[in-house]
Structures are given as structure tokens and as C-alpha cells.
Automatic annotation (TrEMBL):
Gene Ontology CC: ATP-binding cassette (ABC) transporter complex
Upper taxonomic lineage: Bacteria, Pseudomonadati, Pseudomonadota, Betaproteobacteria, Burkholderiales
Protein name per its UniProtKB record: Glutamate transport system permease protein
Domain ABC transmembrane type-1: from-to ranges: 67-257
Localization terms from the record: Cell inner membrane; Cell membrane
Matches recorded under NCBIfam families: HEQRo_perm_3TM
Length: 286
């Protein structure tokens, strides 16, 4: 897959200007960091007393339990969205308007609704419909509705990015349209879109922090808040540890996505197709 630059390479003067801008940016960032660290130090953020509670094993157990609940909700939500997203992608590719149009409406609607509103819907409306679920399932359903719409579009994009010869060969071998989709096209599309699917997992995992508004789900953010309420001098420290935990997991998932991307290019000599690389007709724009 060939790539082209969207701009001309800078000349000597442009490179000097870019280096100067980069140096100024680093100086500004260093100055901001100095002001922040100095302010935190004045407020006692680095005092030993503020960090003393974290010498207790029970504090880390509570934070670990909250993080485990975030991971549990993210994994279940992503598995459900993968399952239903495959069916949604198949519907988006259907030649029947009665199937394709409702799937497109579902995709556009739930792609455009913020996850927080979906969470309010599941936690407030579903109980009024006679579904008194736990906060865990309210969170999972909200995440799954949003992520299913994304995964469905990714599956559609992955199938359309495959060579036309794949479906033609399947038809020549006597496969029906459904068999061709589920046995030949879908496995290849999922492999092609695997970096984007892992990146979607990052979004789902970050979305689990919205469980804080439910009040009854003990996630990492709530566990850090509870610790901060019990140890009044350690609220900022607990929130900082929670932020670092989220950051490390998201970085790890991003590295996995990059590794899969490199592996696909090394194995097949092509780059997995991202959703925004398709043109209006669903074919690759290159």
C-alpha cells in the first residue's frame, strides 16, 4: 500500500523554523510543568503523610477491585458488541433494503448518541420497563449499544476492503451469500480490521469510567473517591494513581494494536484498512 505526503518536505529554512517552534514548545511545556509541580508542592501533594495510606495493602486491594470491575465491564461489553456487530455488519452489506436501511439507521443513531446519555437511558428507562438490572448490566448495555454500531461499520468496511475475487471465488465454489459472508469474508475482514477493533477496546474501557454517575457500581474512579473521602489528604493521590492505571492499560492496548498492524503488514505486505480510508462507495480510496 503506497502512501503519499499531503505536504511538501520543508527546506532548510523550514526545518530551522520547525526546530525553533519545537524548542519553544518544549520550553513552554517545561514552564507549565514547573508551575504545576510547585503549586502541588505548596499544597502538600508530595508530603509523606499524604502518601502514607498507600503503604497499606488494603488500599491497593480496593483500587485493584475497582480496576477489575472496569476491566470486567469493558471485556463483556466488547464481546457483546463483537457478536452483535458482526450481524450488524452483515445487515449493512445486505442487498435487501428492508434489512440494510434499519441497520444503517441503528448505526447512525447509536454512533451519534453520547455514551453518557445511553447510560442514563439504560439506568432510568429499563427499570420502568420491568427490567431491574444491576448497575453492571446498565453500564454494559450502554457500552454495547454504542460499540456495536462502531463494530458493525468496521465489519462493513473490512468486507468492502477485500478483493472482489474473494466473493466471486466463493460463488464459483457454490457457496451461498450467507455462507460466503460467515465462512470466507467475515474472518478475513475481522483480521484486516483487528487493529481498529483493539483501538475500539480502548474507547470501551475508557467509557467504563462513566459508571461513576450510577452510584452503585464500584469502579476504579469510585474506589479512589472513597479512599479520598476516608483519607482526606490523599484524594488527589488516589485520583492520580487511578489516572495512571487507566493510562497504562490504554497504552498497552494501543501497543497491541500497533503490533497487530505491523504483523499484518509483514505477513501480507498490506496495511489494515481504517474506517476513514473508505470512500463514499465503500471501496478503498487508494
Amino acid at each position: 500500500m503506497s502512501t503519499t505526503n499531503l505536504f511538501e518536505e520543508p527546506g532548510p529554512r523550514g526545518r530551522r523554523r520547525n526546530r525553533a517552534i519545537e524548542a519553544i514548545s518544549w520550553v513552554i511545556m517545561a514552564g507549565v510543568a514547573y508551575v504545576v509541580i510547585r503549586t502541588l508542592n505548596k499544597n502538600g501533594a508530595f508530603d509523606a503523610a499524604a502518601w502514607q495510606p498507600f503503604a497499606q495493602w488494603g488500599v491497593w486491594q480496593q483500587l485493584g477491585l475497582g480496576l477489575l470491575n472496569n476491566l470486567r465491564a469493558a471485556v463483556v461489553g466488547m464481546l457483546l458488541s463483537m457478536f452483535f456487530g458482526c450481524f450488524l455488519g452483515w445487515g449493512l452489506l445486505s442487498t435487501r433494503k428492508m434489512v440494510r436501511h434499519p441497520c444503517r439507521v441503528f448505526t447512525d443513531v447509536f454512533n451519534g448518541i453520547p455514551i453518557l446519555l445511553l447510560l442514563f437511558f439504560t439506568s432510568l428507562v429499563l427499570p420502568s420497563w420491568g427490567l431491574p438490572l444491576s448497575d453492571f448490566w446498565f453500564l454494559v448495555i450502554a457500552l454495547s449499544l454504542y460499540s456495536t454500531a462502531v463494530v458493525g461499520d468496521l465489519v462493513r468496511a473490512g468486507v468492502l476492503a477485500l478483493p472482489r475475487g474473494e466473493s466471486e471465488a466463493a460463488a464459483a465454489l457454490g457457496f451461498s451469500g450467507l455462507q460466503s459472508m460467515w465462512l470466507i469474508l467475515l474472518p478475513q475482514a475481522l483480521r484486516l480490521m483487528s487493529p481498529a477493533l483493539v483501538s475500539q477496546m480502548v474507547i470501551v474501557f475508557k467509557g467504563t469510567t462513566l459508571a461513576f454517575v450510577l452510584g452503585g457500581y464500584f469502579d476504579l474512579l469510585r474506589s479512589a473517591t472513597v479512599l479520598g473521602a476516608y483519607f482526606s489528604r490523599s484524594l488527589l493521590q488516589a485520583q492520580g494513581i487511578a489516572a495512571i492505571a487507566f493510562m497504562l492499560i490504554n497504552i498497552a492496548l494501543s501497543q497491541i494494536a500497533s503490533a497487530i498492524d505491523r504483523k499484518e503488514k509483514q505477513r501480507y505486505g498490506v496495511q489494515p484498512v481504517a474506517l476513514d480510508e473508505l470512500d463514499a462507495n465503500g471501496r478503498t480510496a487508494h
